[in-house]
Specification:
This protein is an all-beta fold. It has no helices and 14 strands.
Length: about 210
Amino acid sequence: LVEVAAADLTFWLSCPVPPSEGNGGGGTPPAGGPPIISGKMTGFSKALFDPETLGPDEVAFAQVRLTRPSVDAGEVPVWGRDMVWQEGGTFSFAVPPGRYALVALAGVMNSRTQSVLRTSQLGMRRGINAVTGERVRNADIALSYPMDRAVSVRFDRRLVRAEDQPNQTLVSAHLDFGGEGVFPLAREVSRWNYVVLNNLPRVPGELIA
């Protein structure tokens, strides 16, 4: 500790994450350790595994992510196995304490570069209460929502272009889970009064904001 000109100091302490069950470790985390969430992924579209549609180094995948506390917040990190590669595959990872919804995106990625090429399905699991030292088991996710919806946004008036004023508009869409946080879906910037958001999931309309 170095000398600082401050009345109070705040320390953020974190615990090392125990090994996952799939890598030779696992079991119940020690008391006071990070919350652990685990579950199974189902509902993969068979088309994702069709060798006729997969190019070189392309593989099907699903990744589990957490909701964020607000639209402006950054992504909440997870530590562990958040990727699933097959129907019925499992995930298990540690998270910061909090209340979340889990959102899984499935699609195709390049196994060599690790870049996501396209996403075509979404699944969710709500009501996740992650408490320090506890484990949330059986947080299974079904990939129930195709991501094939497009939404057009048109402004009432054409945007005025001026050299000394902003001439672009940002349009974004996200899933709003109320007290469980939000999850970003799409983001487009346009210089015109017409924007199309693609690759949105067919979820209940009240969830999209």
